[in-house]
């Protein structure tokens, strides 16, 4: 085991987990190989990787560095609702952008029109709740 760790550079379970991830990825790739939309899916994933690595990561890393100056409490009260809002946007992005109306309507019987307003409302509530919690914590801290 020590020889494997020295040669591989990590624990044995890391290698086993990595092999398992590659196996699942290979199985998914084989399942999608016959799909007529596989090329579009691959293009979407490559576009998502490029958009994240070249645009989104530098943007939110810069914002996080700016928030670092405000202190850890403020930074965490912005990070948590931003993460929740971002994850919701990621999940509902086609509906928020108004794409895939026919597919969404066929699957749910609803129209995706209110998704943008709802996402904005949920995001506003997340940030407002975080700001309220921050204000309460600051008031308690001043009282001590």
Task: Describe the structure in your own words.
It is flat, with a radius of gyration of 22 Å. With 144 residues, the protein is mainly alpha-helical. The protein has a domain of 74 residues. It has six helices and no strands. 84% of the residues lie in helices and 0% in strands. Helix 4 runs antiparallel to helix 6. The longest helix has 31 residues.
Features:
flat, mainly alpha, 6 helices, 144 residues, 84% helix
Write down how many β-strands occur, each being a DSSP E stretch of 2 or more residues. 0
Molecular shape: flat
Mean residue pLDDT: 89
Question: Could you tell me the radius of gyration in angstroms?
Answer: 22 Å
Helix amount, in percent?
A: over 70%
What's the quick description here?
The protein has 144 residues and is mainly alpha-helical.
Chain-wise SSE layout:
Blueprint lengths: L1 H7 L3 H21 L5 H31 L3 H25 L4 H8 L6 H29 L1
Helix pairs in contact: 4-6
């Amino acid at each position: 085991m020590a020889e494997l760790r020295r040669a591989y550079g990590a624990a044995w379970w890391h290698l086993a987990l990595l092999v398992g991830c590659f196996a699942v990825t290979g199985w998914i790739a084989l399942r999608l190989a016959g799909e007529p939309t596989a090329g579009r899916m691959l293009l979407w994933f490559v576009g998502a990787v490029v958009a994240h690595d070249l645009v989104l990561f530098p943007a939110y890393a810069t914002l996080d560095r700016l928030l670092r100056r405000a202190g850890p409490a403020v930074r965490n009260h912005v990070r948590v609702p931003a993460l929740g809002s971002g994850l919701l946007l990621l999940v509902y992005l086609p509906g928020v952008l108004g794409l895939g109306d026919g597919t969404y309507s066929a699957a749910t019987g609803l129209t995706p029109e209110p998704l943008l307003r709802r996402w904005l409302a949920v995001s506003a509530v997340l940030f407002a709740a975080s700001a309220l919690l921050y204000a309460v914590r600051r008031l308690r801290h001043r009282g001590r």
